[in-house]
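no rush on this but wanted to send it before i forget. theres a chain ive been looking at and ive put its sequence and its fold in token form underneath. please have a look and point out which stretches look like helix strand or loop to you. thanks a lot i owe you, the record is right below:
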Amino acid sequence: MKVAVIGANGKEGSLIVKEALSRGLDVTSIVRDAKKSPTDKYLIRDVYSLQAEDIKNFDVLVDALGFFGPAVKEYVPATKHLIEIIGDSKTRLLVVGGAGSLYLDETHTKKLYQQADFPEVVKPLSEEMGKSLDVLRESKIDWTFISPAADFQADGERTGKYVLAGEELTFDADGKSEISYADFAIAMVDEIVEAKHSKKRISVRW
């Protein structure tokens, strides 16, 4: 299976690359600087210079891009560009999503970022990632959007375990919603290999 990872040198992207390589997948990094590629195979592109010709031979394209500050507005146009270049090909798009757009209950009337106590500094990021999910829902490509738990721990341990959930924010027996970047990477590669959630948003926690 041939996999390309955009943002392969980022904190989450690099862990996804590492996990995929450990399972024998053929991984190509898409990075803006060759020196930052975590793999021997790489393409030097930013998301907007990436073209259909670049990705046509990949089974899966992983979007592990991270936009922060004013750049959060790039989530929607970047997603639209990836949808456009995938077109009617068989390449699947898997997206590292956010927790803020998860629903609070089964009525799906309120999202996590719409809570009064949600941190204002994170709200624009959650809103834009949620909009990019809406764009995916309206597309015709084969996509999967994976949201982490509310507490997404960059330096959390790799336990090798996770609980798979759907559109709603879920908690463990202690009322916690947590996952490490490393265990999120496991869930992402499981979906790459198993392809069980076509055109769906799923979520993962411990």
